[in-house]
Amino acid sequence: xxxxxxxxxxxxxxxxxxxxxxxxxxxxxxxxxxxxxxxxxxxxxxxxxxxxxxxxxxxxxxxxxxxxxxxxxxxxxxxxxxxxxxxxxxxxxxxxxxxxxxxxxxxxxxxxxxxxxxxxxxxxxxxxxxxxxxxxxxxxxxxxxxxxxxxxxxxxxxxxxxxxxxxxxxxxxxxxxxxxxxxxxxxxxxxxxxxxxxxxxxxxxxxxxxxxxxxxxxxxxxxxxxxxxxxxxxxxxxxxxxxxxxxxxxxxxxxxxxxxxxxxxxxxxxxxxxxxxxxxxxxxxxxxxxxxxxxxxxxxxxxxxxxxxxxxxxxxxxxxxxxxxxxxxxxxxxxxxxxxxxxxxxxxxxxxxxxxxxxxxxxxxxxxxxxxxxxxxxxxxxxxxxxxxxxxxxxxxxxxxxxxxxxxxxxxxxxxxxxxxxxxxxxxxxxxxxxxxxxxxxxxxxxxxxxxxxxxxxxxxxxxxxxxxxxxxxxxxxxxxxxxxxxxxxxxxxxxxxxxxxxxxxxxxxxxxxxxxxxxxxxxxxxxxxxxxxxxxxxxxxxxxxxxxxxxxxxxxxxxxxxxxxxxxxxxxxxxxxxxxxxxxxxxxxxxxxxxxxxxxxxxxxxxxxxxxxxxxxxxxxxxxxxxxxxxxxxxxxxxxxxxxxxxxxxxxxxxxxxxxxxxxxxxxxxxxxxxxxxxxxxxxxxxxxxxxxxxxxxxxxxxxx
Length: 706
Known about the structure:
This protein is α+β, with helices and mostly antiparallel strands. It contains ten helices and 40 strands.
C-alpha cells in the first residue's frame, strides 16, 4: 500500500472565502503596524459568523476528498471503545471513581459503599445527561468534610466560564445553590457549611473575548443567594490580581490564598480559621517564586517552593513566623525537578530525570524511607491521599503503554496492579527511544521518538513532531489513543523537551521566555533537523503540531522555516503576539512573552516572530490546517482567524492553507469524545493526504491483538 504514494497530491482547487481588509493601524512607539483583519476579533458580529461558516465550508469540502478519512474515523472509534476507569477515592461513607464505558462523550462518576464490592457501584453523576451532544462537561468536584454535600462545576460549549451546582449526596438531589460566572477556580469546602471559589468581575462586553483581570475569592454559605457571598480576598481597588485561588488545609484549620498577576510566581497568604478576626498573615509578599502550602501539622507549615531553588525544595516553618528567612529545608533542592504530594503522613517526592519519573518516599523530618519501584520508564502520578489513608493509588503510563492504576501500601511501599485497560493495541509492537541532540546554540535537548519495531530509517516515514515549550509545563511520556492510531500507520511520533518547559526546572523555563523565546523555536527546528539528518523522516514526510502555546510554536516555526515541513498543524494557538494580552486573561502570560508595550526592544522582538505578522507574500507555506473552537475563551479564536486569513491571502505555493473551526468547543478540556474523534480523523487524514498518500500507509488489522 505504501507504494500508492505521490509527493505531488492532486485535489480539487480550493477557492478561499473572501476576507475583507480594514485600515486599522496601531502605533507602537515610533512604528505603525497594520491590522487588516481586526474585524475578525468581534466574536459577536454576524460578519464574523458568516466568515466562520464560509471557511468551514471550504475546509470540509477539501476534507471530504480524502479517501481514507472515514477509515481513520472508524479505527479511532474502534480503538477508543474500551472501558476506562480512574483511581478510586473515599468521601464520607462512599468510595467514588470515574468510568467511561468506551465511547461515552464524558466520564461518569460512580460510587459504592466503602467496604462493599465495586460491582455494586451506582451512577452518581453522569454529565452525558446534561446535554445530548455531550457539549456540557463536568469540571472540578469537591466534597464537604463529611461527604454529605458535593459542589461541582460544569462548562457549556467548552468555555472557561463555569456554573457550580451543589448536591446532597445522600438524596442525590440538587440543593438549589447554583453559582454562576465562575472562572479559573477550584472549590474548597470549609467543614460542611460552605465553600470557597474564585471568579472575575463580569465583563461588560463579550464573555468570550473581553479582558478579565480582577480575580477574587469568595465564600458561599449553603442556603444563601450568591449575591450575599462573602468577598474574602481580591477586593482592594488599588490591587488587582489576574489569578486568585484559595483552599482549606486538610486539618480544616487554615485558609491558604495564592495571588498573582502572571502564570509564574505568586504571593501567598494564610489565615488561622480558629482566629479569623486576625485576618491574613503574609507568607510571600513578592511574586518572585512559585510557593505553595502542601500540608500542616499543628502550627507547622510545610511548603514546596522554587525560591532560591530552581528545581524546587520542601521547607517548613511555624505559623507564627512564616516568611522565608525562617524556613528550614525538609527535602533540599536536588539536581532534578521536584513535585511533591502527601499521603498517610508521608511525603512523596517525584523527580523528573530527563522527563522520566522517579519517586521517593520521605517522612516529615526529611528522612528518605524508600524509592518506589515503578513498573517501568514513563510517567507516574497521583501520589496523594488523606492523612488517615493507609493505601494510595497511582497511575503509570508511557507512549506505548495505556495508563494503568496501581495500589500501594503506604507503610510497606508494596505496589500491585489495580486496573489495567483491555485495549486492541499491542504495545509490544512498538518502541520508544530517548535521544539527545544539540540546538542552534549548542544546548543539549532530549527527545523521545516512538515508532513501530522494525522501522526502516529511509527518510520516508510519516512523522509528527509535537512540541509545547512554555509556561514551565513539562511534556512527559503518556499514552494516547490518537497517537496509537498514528503509530499503527507506520507513523513516527517525536516529542522534544524544548526550553520554556519545566523539564529541567526554572532555569530551563526562563531560557525560553520573553527575549529568549527564539530558543524555543530553535530547539524545535533542531529537533526536526535531527529527525531528517538521521533518516527517521524527511521534509516531505514531516508534520509539526502543537496547541495553545504550542500553536504559537508551530506558527513561528512554519513562518521561519516553511521549507522544513510538509504539513503544519497549529491548534488553538497564540498567534498575534502584539495583541494577545488584550483578550480575556491573556495579560497574565506576560511573564513568558512580555508585551508590546513593555519597551521598544520587547515590541521589536515580538514583532520579529509573531506568526500573524510574519506571513510573507509569495512564500510557499506547507499544507496547513489551523484548528480552533468558537467558544475558546482561553486563547480566543481571533488569533487563528487572523493567521488563516494572512496565509490564504499570501500563500505562494500550491498547498492548501485551511482553518477548521469547531462549534460549541473551547480550548480543549471537556471536548466530547465524538468531536475529538472527528477532529483527529480530519487532522491525520489531512496530514497523510498532503504527504502524498492515497491509501493508508499500513493495514490496521496487522496491529490487533490475536
